[in-house]
């Protein structure tokens, strides 16, 4: 049996299991290969891998720290008694507190261990931390916000530079006055002297919002808006803005004329400047709708019940009582981390799951995110949270804000990451797919000077085309012409630039590409589009569909090679006349207006009368209303290939676009999906004699 070293540092050897939470001692153990652990230089921590059984054995042998660890684990996971349960002890090097990660084989919890702020001394490298405030208008909460603001305004030149470079502002603001004000007013900014400081609200509307500006009520709102007439989320934003001494507030529902398409297009195209110029953006992260509010701490987040914090009184070696505590680190905002598990990788806060809020998050110079568990501050130069954890900070979009990146190749790579994260977020109106990221697109265009076509960049088009659908297909009804088939914006559901995993970058293009599109309005050139075309010259060969499922999986045969892919959408047959008058059957995307999803997913062939009713006759062809039969023609276009090292030689991963004909005009092609093929078996197939020029729509 052995005993822990005292908190004064005098003593016996440290526990070989927890190393008394001493990162230096643990690092020495790693160097001596006596410890199952690693050094994480990104977060500056030592990670010790342990089983619950090992920790319990050390506790039984007299280690007070391991006994505490067992109690904490059983508090947060009463079912973790399995001897195979694995955890990670994360010991900070320098500043920070112990964190415990568990379990390692499923959705992971991160527990932060600390002492009560009333305790001035450390206990085995566990230091005091402030409690997280439950009242966002309390003295402590306002002190946190004001401290972050003061530090940014006085010490962050990049934040000042960002705002000085953003000239355009909102057309309207809400005058909120001070805390005594209960009547607000909608004001035109061109009638105000100078450029007044304003806060901006980022929030979820929910099903609807009880008050919004329209052509008919705009004059009334300029005369006065009763604070009590606003839904709670808007009321909370007003109250917080007043407490911070800011006289104006921007809220989209009130500052954009909602039934004026012209005003909506104009202001939505100005989002980059509106959020960049805001004194502070307030993100109501925990509120799923405008009626819920966000200033009062909630006991639940969606369907996830909040776990109560752990506390235990420990007697130090000198008899001093120390209150030790532990709490779950919220997996939201700056602590969120992408995971391979489809169900676990979606952020839990409602605000983090909405489409429009992504650009509001990325474009804001200063963002105060108020979640159900804590407040988080993000600006161009700092990230601060109430829990003081460094867990996963800057993991989602890298360490440099998009507005500070000048390298075009880096920005284009970041754009792909943004598309991936954006694709899993929800939109009330699918027509908002492109407008909801138009502000981010504006920043990318300013940095690169590249033409932007329906979510793709002309100067990076070779790589931008390499998206694919992953996870379940989202078959909500939407406008068929929202974007051309070659754009990720043409479908709903998760998008993945899978080919860029594991650092793949060396790419050899096989095609020559020319993009074109027409924006819906000149006022929003980076928003929605009327139509788009892509002219491609490259290796193109005919193929046949060997097998297809109603769940969007397809097998294509080219020569004697089978290719498997997840199609972008449900696919059906298209019959159209060839130039010689003969009918030809090919595949095309299933237009959203054509037939119910249940009949598509049934996998059965329709009867004669049912088929006759389901067929949609197009100008130059007709849709069959059923999945394509085996042997149906499609086409394979070689876009390019990635070089990969394998056994001291180079092999090529070929990126292949699977095409059908367009149901709107069969002389054009449309994208059905993307797949990859490794090796040289198809090199002759894609020879120079098969190079053609085609147009995708």
Automatic annotation (TrEMBL):
Protein's organism: Pochonia chlamydosporia 170
PANTHER family: DOMAIN PROTEIN, PUTATIVE-RELATED (PTHR33112), HETEROKARYON INCOMPATIBILITY DOMAIN-CONTAINING PROTEIN (PTHR33112:SF16)
Domain Heterokaryon incompatibility per the UniProt entry, residue ranges: 198-360
Region (Disordered), start-end ranges: 592-614
Record protein name field: HET domain-containing protein
Coiled-coil ranges per UniProt: none
Domain of life the protein comes from: Eukaryota
InterPro entries recorded: HET
């Amino acid at each position: 049996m052995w005993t822990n070293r005292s908190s004064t540092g005098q003593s016996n050897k440290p526990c070989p299991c927890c190393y008394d939470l001493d990162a230096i001692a643990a690092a020495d153990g790693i160097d001596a290969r006596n410890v199952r652990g690693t050094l994480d230089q990104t977060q500056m921590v030592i990670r010790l891998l342990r089983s619950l059984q090992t920790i319990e054995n050390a506790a039984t042998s007299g280690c007070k720290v391991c006994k505490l660890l067992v109690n904490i684990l059983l508090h947060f996971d009463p079912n973790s008694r399995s001897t195979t349960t694995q955890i990670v002890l994360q010991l900070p090097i320098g500043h920070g507190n112990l964190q415990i990660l568990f379990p390692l084989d499923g959705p992971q919890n991160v527990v932060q261990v600390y002492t009560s702020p009333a305790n001035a001394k450390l206990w085995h490298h566990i230091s005091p931390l402030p409690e997280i405030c439950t009242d966002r208008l309390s003295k402590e909460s306002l002190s946190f916000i004001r401290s972050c603001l003061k530090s940014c305004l006085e010490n962050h030149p990049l934040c000042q530079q960002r705002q000085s470079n953003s000239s355009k502002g909102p057309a309207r603001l809400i005058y909120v006055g001070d805390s005594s004000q209960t009547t607000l007013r909608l004001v035109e900014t061109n009638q105000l002297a100078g450029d007044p400081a304003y806060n901006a609200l980022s929030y979820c509307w929910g099903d609807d919002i009880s008050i919004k500006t329209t052509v008919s009520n705009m004059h009334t709102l300029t005369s006065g808006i009763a604070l009590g007439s606003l839904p709670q989320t808007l009321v909370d934003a007003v109250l917080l803005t007043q407490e911070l001494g800011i006289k104006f507030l921007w809220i989209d529902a009130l500052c954009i004329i909602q039934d004026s398409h012209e005003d909506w297009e104009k202001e939505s195209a100005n989002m980059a400047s509106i959020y960049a110029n805001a004194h502070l953006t307030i993100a109501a992260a925990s509120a799923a709708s405008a009626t819920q509010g966000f200033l009062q701490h909630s006991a639940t987040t969606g369907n996830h019940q909040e776990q109560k914090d752990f506390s235990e009184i420990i007697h130090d070696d000198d008899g001093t009582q120390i209150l030790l505590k532990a709490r779950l680190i919220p997996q939201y905002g700056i602590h969120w981390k992408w995971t391979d598990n489809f169900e676990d990788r979606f952020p839990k806060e409602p605000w983090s799951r909405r489409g429009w809020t992504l650009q509001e998050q990325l474009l804001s110079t200063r963002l105060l995110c108020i979640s159900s568990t804590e407040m988080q501050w993000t600006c161009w130069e700092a990230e601060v949270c109430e829990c003081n954890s460094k867990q996963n900070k800057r993991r989602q979009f890298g360490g440099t804000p998009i507005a500070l990146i000048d390298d075009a190749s880096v920005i284009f790579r970041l754009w792909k990451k943004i598309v991936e994260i954006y694709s899993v977020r929800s939109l009330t109106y699918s027509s908002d797919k492109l407008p909801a990221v138009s502000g981010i697109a504006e920043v990318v265009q300013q940095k690169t000077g590249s033409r932007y076509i329906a979510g793709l960049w002309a100067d990076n088009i070779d790589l931008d085309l390499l998206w694919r659908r992953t996870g379940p297909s989202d078959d909500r009804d939407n406008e068929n012409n929202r974007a051309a088939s070659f754009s990720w914006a043409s479908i709903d559901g998760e998008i993945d630039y899978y080919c860029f995993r594991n650092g793949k970058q060396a790419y050899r293009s096989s095609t020559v590409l020319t993009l074109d599109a027409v924006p819906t309005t000149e006022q929003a050139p980076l928003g929605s589009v009327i139509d788009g075309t892509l002219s491609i010259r490259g290796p193109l060969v005919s193929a046949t569909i060997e097998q297809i499922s109603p769940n969007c999986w397809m097998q294509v045969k080219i020569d004697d090679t089978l290719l498997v892919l997840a199609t972008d959408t449900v696919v059906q047959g298209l019959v159209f006349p060839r130039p010689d008058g003969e009918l030809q059957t090919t595949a095309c995307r299933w237009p959203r207006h054509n037939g119910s999803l249940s009949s598509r997913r049934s996998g059965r062939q329709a009867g004669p009368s049912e088929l006759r009713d389901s067929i949609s006759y197009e100008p130059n062809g007709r849709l069959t209303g059923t999945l394509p039969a085996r042997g149906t023609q499609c086409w394979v276009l070689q876009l390019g290939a990635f070089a990969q090292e394998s056994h001291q030689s180079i092999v090529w991963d070929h990126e292949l676009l699977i095409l059908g004909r367009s149901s709107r005009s069969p002389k054009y092609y449309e994208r059905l999906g993307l797949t990859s093929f490794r090796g040289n078996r198809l090199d002759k197939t894609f020879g120079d004699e098969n190079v053609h020029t085609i147009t995708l729509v």
